[in-house]
């Protein structure tokens, strides 16, 4: 049996190590996972109540059209209902976009390093991923424009970028969008949108109004804390959304995810609290990195990427032995670690562990 040619050399996705596995392997009782940019404060109590209510309907297929959620998000964003598509995480929206628009031989342009699913889904569809190195940790939009060819179908902009947390501002993005031919889709991945505190961050919904080739991707996995339920969405003009809908599986989002997402949207206190605590956490980490003389990218997400000045695998292993799961092994940043901003207690445990690791390796005195 031979699989399709495009996946022959495709790696299987390697998630951050699960907490239970690390406990078992290293004989630890306390393990803190700061590897996957999850919300350390859980989710809204209203979301939990909504899930409880839905339990009575567990044997009934979910609403294929996510009607209630579509209405809630449309009101929240002030867009039309037919401008929305929901997926099992924004991961699935990325997959559906690639499935709907890419044919073998097509190209998509993305940053390097950025979120790996853009490349993954491009390759699965038989396309070619054109990767453009980041400039100072940020998307190099002019260099990305220069890579456009007749075969370009999608340009992926991760804003804030995962793993660096950097943003492209309103002016840069608006200029970029004005230069991209209208037949090329611009996918603006805003998975960390709610954590952004920089006033120069683009108002992408405003940009969307004048451009039929933009799709904005958002998720309930991050600030809303619903990562395990798998629910994210895309916002675009109705024509584009219709094509993505054509390749959507009939029941791609669960009734628990839909109900929890509706309840979460209404809980602004939870969202604001998480955003504020994340901002405090980022500032604490910067202050500690400064104290240790380590450089880092200023992040607009719920994670920070810093230079540990040692091979990242060594730092990753040292942190792991101390019960901290981080992310390492970035192609262009071999000494950098990405760490999710945790609760204050988790952040302090991480900093203690990092100091020990660096002292052990004599990076710090
Ligand atoms: C930039 C970015 N986009 C999309 C996703 C996918 O999120 P989900 O599928 O949970 O919505 C992530 C998850 O880490 C991410 O970092």
UniProtKB/TrEMBL annotation:
Coiled coil: none annotated. It catalyses: L-histidinol phosphate + 2-oxoglutarate = 3-(imidazol-4-yl)-2-oxopropyl phosphate + L-glutamate. The keyword Nucleus does not apply. Signal peptide: none annotated. Its cofactor is pyridoxal 5'-phosphate. Keywords: Amino-acid biosynthesis, Aminotransferase, Histidine biosynthesis, Pyridoxal phosphate, Transferase. It holds the Pfam family Aminotran_1_2. The modification N6-(pyridoxal phosphate)lysine is found at residue 222. Pathway: Amino-acid biosynthesis; L-histidine biosynthesis; L-histidine from 5-phospho-alpha-D-ribose 1-diphosphate: step 7/9. Residues 30-354 form the Aminotransferase class I/classII large domain. The keyword Transferase applies. InterPro entries: Aminotransferase_I/II_large, HisP_aminotrans, HistidinolP_aminotransfase, PyrdxlP-dep_Trfase, PyrdxlP-dep_Trfase_major, PyrdxlP-dep_Trfase_small. GO terms for molecular function: histidinol-phosphate transaminase activity. Its EC number is 2.6.1.9. Belongs to the class-II pyridoxal-phosphate-dependent aminotransferase family. Histidinol-phosphate aminotransferase subfamily. This is Histidinol-phosphate aminotransferase. It comes from Paenibacillus sepulcri.
């Amino acid at each position: 049996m031979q699989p399709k040619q495009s996946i022959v050399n495709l790696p299987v996705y390697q998630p951050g190590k699960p907490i239970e596995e690390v406990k078992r392997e290293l004989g630890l009782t306390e393990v803190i996972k700061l590897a996957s940019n999850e919300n350390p404060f859980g989710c809204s109590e209203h979301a939990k109540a909504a899930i409880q209510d839905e339990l009575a309907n567990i044997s009934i297929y979910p609403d294929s059209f996510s009607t209630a959620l579509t209405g809630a998000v449309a009101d929240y964003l002030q867009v039309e209902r037919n401008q929305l598509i929901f997926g099992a995480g924004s991961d699935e929206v990325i997959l559906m976009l690639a499935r709907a628009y890419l044919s073998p031989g097509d190209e998509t342009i993305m940053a390097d390093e950025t979120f790996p699913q853009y490349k993954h889904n491009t390759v699965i569809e038989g396309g070619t991923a054109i990767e453009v190195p980041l400039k100072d940790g940020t998307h190099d939009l002019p260099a990305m424009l220069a890579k456009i060819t007749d075969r370009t179908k999608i340009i992926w902009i991760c804003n804030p970028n995962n793993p660096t947390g950097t943003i492209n501002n309103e002016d840069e993005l608006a200029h970029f969008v004005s230069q991209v031919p209208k037949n090329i889709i611009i996918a603006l991945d805003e998975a960390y949108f709610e954590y952004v505190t920089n006033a120069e961050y683009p108002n992408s919904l405003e940009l969307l109004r004048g451009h039929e080739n933009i799709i904005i991707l958002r998720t309930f996995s991050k600030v809303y804390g619903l990562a395990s339920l798998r629910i994210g969405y895309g916002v675009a003009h109705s024509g584009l959304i219709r094509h993505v809908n054509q390749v959507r599986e009939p029941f791609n989002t669960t009734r628990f995810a839909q109900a929890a997402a509706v309840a979460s949207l209404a809980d602004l206190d939870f969202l604001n609290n998480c955003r504020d605590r994340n901002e405090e956490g980022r500032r604490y980490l910067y202050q500690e990195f400064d104290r240790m003389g380590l450089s880092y990218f200023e992040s607009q997400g719920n994670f920070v990427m810093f230079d540990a000045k040692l091979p990242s695998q060594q730092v990753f292993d040292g942190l792991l032995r101390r019960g901290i799961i981080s992310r390492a092994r970035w192609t262009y940043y071999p000494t950098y670690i990405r760490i999710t901003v945790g609760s204050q207690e988790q952040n302090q445990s991480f900093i203690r562990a990092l100091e020990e690791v660096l002292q052990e390796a004599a990076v710090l005195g």
